[in-house]
Amino acid sequence: MHTHNPFRRTQLSAVILSLLAPGFSVAATANWVGTTGFWDSNTNWSTNPALPASGDDTVLNVAGAQTITVRSNGTPFTVNSINTNGGDEILAITDGRLNLLGAITTSNATGNSSVGTFIQSAGIIGGTGNLSVTG
Q: Within a domain: residue 134?
C-alpha cells in the first residue's frame, strides 16, 4: 500500500513560492529626507539603504532652497515619478541620467505650483512621461 505524505506537497509549494518571490517587488514612495545633497546618496531618502528604483514614486518636499543634484554614477536613475510640494527645491542634473516612467508633478496648498528651479547643465532626462516647461 502506497501512502502519501501531505507535508511533501506543502514543502514543494513553499519551495516554488520562495523561488518566485525574489522577482516580486512592490513600488514604494521614496521621500527626500535630506537637505542639499546628491540623488545617489541613500541617506537622503526614506527608503534608506535603498535608492529609489524604477517603480518608485519620489517626493521632494524640502524647506527652503535646497539643491538635489543628479550626478553620474555609471548607470541612469529610473523612477516612476517625481512629485514636489511647491517648495523652493532645485533639481540639478549635472552629468547624470534621470529617466522618468511617469511625470513630474507639483502641488501646494496655496494653489500655486512651482518646481522651484530645474537646472540641466549636462546629462539626460528622458522617459515615457510628460515634461512641461512654461515661463
A: no
Q: Has residue 1 got a pLDDT over 70?
A: no
Dist CA 28 CA 46 (whole Å): 10
CA separation, residue 36 to residues 33, 67, 135 (Å): 10, 5, 25
Number of domains in the chain: 1
Q: Select from 115, 113, 111 the least CA-distant residue to 58.
A: 115
Residue whose C-alpha cell reads 520562495 in the numeric block:
18
Domain membership of residue 90 (yes or no) is: yes
Give mean pLDDT, residues 15-33: 68
* C-alpha distance from residue 94 to each of 4, 30, 78, 87 (Å): 64, 21, 16, 21
* Cα atoms found within 13 Å of the Cα of residue 119, Cβ hemisphere only: 15
- Any domain includes 103: yes
Question: Who has greater pLDDT, 55 or 131?
Answer: 55
Q: 70: exposed, middle or buried (C-beta count within 10 Å: 0-12, 13-18, 19+)?
A: buried
